[in-house]
Amino acid sequence: MPTQPTIARIWRGRTRPEIADSYEAYIKAEGIPPLERTALGVQLFREDREHESWFTTISYWPDFESMTAFTKGTPTKVHHLDRDPEFLIELPEFIQIHRILVDRQGLR
């Protein structure tokens, strides 16, 4: 039986709308694959606003220890991708860590 996630690790960053498509392709190619290999699951969201585009990545972990092993230390520390300074309006300073209290999918 697959392990259920108990932890969600949430990263948010924003870019200019005119380069949002390029950043989306970049984060899908460079940021998501390592999470797909190690986390129980990962989601990437995009919200386009008039003057900025927001990206949110949520990865799901069975426990704090496995997330800490992936981050090689402090899970709240941001590990920027090499080209993040080129794309992002500002470099995010923190990651949010949330315990999952309810996990229901497929609700109607």
General description of the model:
It comes from Bradyrhizobium icense. This is Antibiotic biosynthesis monooxygenase. By secondary structure, the protein is α+β, with helices and mostly antiparallel strands. The protein has a single domain (7-99), classed as Alpha-Beta Plaits (2-Layer Sandwich). Helices cover 28% and strands 28% of the residues. It has helices at 20-30, 32-38, 64-71, 84-87, and strands at 7-15, 41-48, 53-61, 96-99. A 4-stranded antiparallel sheet has the order 2-3-1-4. A hairpin with a 4-residue loop joins β2 (41-48) and β3. The longest helix has 11 residues, at 20-30. The two termini are 25 Å apart. The mean pLDDT is 91.
Name the features.
Alpha-Beta Plaits; globular; Antibiotic biosynthesis monooxygenase; alpha+beta; 4-stranded antiparallel beta sheet
